[in-house]
Amino acid sequence: MSELHVRTVRSGSNVTIKCDQNMDNDNKNYLSWYKQSSGKVPEYVVRSFQGIRYASGFNDGRFTVDEETFDLTINGKNEEDAGLYFCGKVKANVVEFGSGTHLLYQENNSWIVITLTILNVIFVIVIILLIGLLLKNHRNGTFNSHLSYTDQAEDTKVLNYAALNFAMKPSSSRPPRLSSRTQDEKQDVYSQVKHS
Predict the structure, then answer these.
(1) How far apart (Å, rounded) are the C-alpha atoms in residues 8 and 103?
(2) 3-7, 20-24, 65-69, 82-86 — which is least confidently predicted?
(3) Distance CA 86, CA 99 (A)
(4) N or C end: fewer C-beta atoms under 10 angstroms in the chain?
(5) pLDDT tens, 113-159?
(6) Helix, strand, coil % over all residues of the chain, rounded to 5
């Protein structure tokens, strides 16, 4: 074999592989295509001996050869078609190979690209909306109070006690009572907070 070409083909597409051998007009020599899948022995696909003859498994109409150039065309390529393809000339029951083509299979992943693009656009829109909402809350002054409330509610191990502060206010309709405390005195009440 003189050289090896590598081609990657998408699922469902058609591919033509060139044969670098020349067909003889005498009936002593003929051409043949062989395929070798990964880990398997080569198997013949088609030969030109006494007309074009396809091997079993390759005679479903998807594999065709040009009768003048003996180029092999695979219509609607699928994953099972991946492998090494060799065009050879058969002389006295000996096959002389020219070049070969390693045909690789590539899935049609366009739907994955479209889905990822849509998800990225949605992600960017959500981020922009969240930034706008944060800026609006910050301008309204609710940003800091909301954060401190959230931090307090989420950090349950720090908040074990709550302190309440009651200031004595005089009633506006009657004069203040005389007591041992002054009006500015404050009464602090402590309470333990238990979590279950």
Answers:
(1) 6
(2) 20-24
(3) 7
(4) C
(5) 778 888 888 888 998 999 988 888 888 865 444 444 445 455 555 55
(6) 25, 35, 40
